[in-house]
Amino acid sequence: MADKDHQKPEWLRLLRSGDHTAFAELVEKYKSDVFLCCRTLGLRDHEAEDVASETFLAAYRAIARYRGQAELGTWLWSIAYRQAVNYLRKNRPSCESLAAQDDNIQQDPATTALCRSEQQELVWDAVKRLPRLWAAAVILYYRQDRTIRDIAEIMRTRQNTVKTYLFRARRKLKELLPDVLGEDIYEDR
Questions:
Q1: CA-based end-to-end distance of the chain
Q2: Of all residues in the chain, what percent carry a pLDDT higher than 90?
Q3: 19 contacts: CB under 8 Å, gap ≥ 6
Q4: What fold characterizes domain 4-91?
């Protein structure tokens, strides 16, 4: 989430006026979010670096038009998302979804005793195996704490479509996670 100091009118005025220090702060503050967006969509590290550079360049060019209707982080994620999708369309037109790359998650009996942080890591690994749009929606909703409305703006789709992505992703994760954890984690006990 955006730091409230970076939403203050003075900092935004400096940013809009092209102040290099304010822009450097913007890059430092949001670079991990931009890389997360790129990696969520399946870009490799070197591709994510290229797309991140293009994202911040596009943000620099468009910052004067930023009106503050969405949080700055949401606005940047939206730019990163579009840049990454465009990159994939141009450079990997036949690339398949992450789910198709590896449908087999190996079952390990020792995982039943994993601590919560290890389980969370396994869940996020499973999220990476979802189709890109589903994974992006899950990460934005659960990791970035974005609203359905914000996600719809970022992905340039309808709110109902985002809800469908989340529904399908949860359903697929229910299929994947029992294999990863060695038990049915959704079963009431």
A1: 35
A2: 18
A3: none
A4: Rna Polymerase Sigma Factor; Chain: A (1.10.1740)
